[in-house]
């Protein structure tokens, strides 16, 4: 059964732990300029997503391509622009039309009948690069999808930083978490991360959500919802996460490590896979 996690005692505890994080981690200087990195957003091109009026064989020859070929394209532009502003990169904001034009040009020589993963990389100098890779995994956009992954609880907390709040190529912390927590050779796996206050944040490649009972603060009414950790815990603002929040399919709410149950379902979300479910292994 879902656990009710919205109680006065848990809120007070979270406030106290948040103050401790501020004291332990956020008062020390963080030298972003000393770390080489690029802004990153991974976009899915998929002919199976196309919903335009032209026949597919004709549509893949158009310039620019129909936006429906790209999974959640407007959300990628918004996410990149927020990162550009935060890190003060010398890049003009992406509009959906500009991003669509650049990507369409880059795909001109590609096999557009196949699924592709497009890594949008933006450098501080203003240069933008597109890496195009083959992709074979299917995409889903359904919170009721079946369990196809395992997710292992990390063995130590993740230190939050700008590199856990924004998607970049500086990912050592995620790689280290996967190495220490996922058994060697395991497939279709991920690692569940949490911060120093033992608040769940995300996985190494996905945002996450948990099925929880939520008590309305005024009426006392209890309803069950998919809760995804708020950005304040130090997680990335993923494109699928934001889309599902906008559509009212998931909601923000804190998830404490102490409330996790071995074997429970975890909803995973990212811009290449869409949504998948995982079984939690603690």
From TrEMBL:
Positions of transmembrane segments: none
Secretion signal span: none
Domain of life: Eukaryota
GO molecular function: catalytic activity
Gene3D superfamilies xref list: 3.30.470.10, D-amino Acid Aminotransferase, subunit A, domain 2
InterPro entries: Aminotrans_IV (IPR001544), Aminotransferase-like (IPR036038), BCAT-like_C (IPR043132), BCAT-like_N (IPR043131)
Descriptive protein name: Aminodeoxychorismate lyase
Provenance organism: [Candida] arabinofermentans NRRL YB-2248
């Amino acid at each position: 059964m879902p656990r009710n996690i919205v109680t006065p005692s848990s809120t007070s505890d979270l406030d106290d732990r948040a103050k401790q994080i501020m004291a332990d981690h956020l008062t020390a200087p963080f030298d972003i300029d000393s770390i080489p990195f690029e802004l990153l957003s991974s976009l899915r091109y998929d002919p199976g997503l196309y919903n335009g009026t032209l026949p597919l064989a004709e549509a893949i020859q158009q310039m620019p391509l129909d936006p429906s070929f790209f999974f959640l394209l407007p959300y990628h532009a918004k996410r990149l622009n927020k990162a550009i502003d935060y890190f003060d990169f010398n890049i003009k904001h992406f509009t959906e039309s500009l991003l669509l034009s650049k990507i369409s040009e880059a795909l001109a020589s590609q096999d557009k009948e196949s699924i592709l993963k497009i890594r949008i990389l933006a450098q501080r100098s203003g240069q933008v690069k597109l890496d195009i890779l083959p992709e074979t995994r299917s995409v889903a956009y359904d919170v009721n999808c079946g369990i196809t992954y395992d997710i292992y609880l990390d063995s130590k907390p993740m230190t939050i930083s700008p590199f856990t709040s924004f998607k970049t190529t500086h990912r050592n912390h995620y790689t280290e978490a996967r190495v220490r927590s996922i058994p060697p050779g395991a497939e279709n796996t991920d690692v569940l991360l949490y911060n120093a206050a033992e608040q769940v944040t995300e996985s190494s490649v996905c945002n996450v959500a948990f099925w929880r009972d939520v008590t309305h603060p005024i009426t006392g009414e209890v309803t069950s919802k998919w809760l995804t950790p708020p950005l304040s815990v130090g997680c990335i603002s993923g494109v699928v996460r934001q889309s599902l929040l906008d559509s009212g399919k998931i909601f923000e709410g804190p998830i404490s490590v102490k409330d996790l149950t071995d074997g429970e379902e975890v909803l995973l979300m990212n811009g290449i896979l869409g949504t998948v479910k995982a079984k939690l292994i603690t």
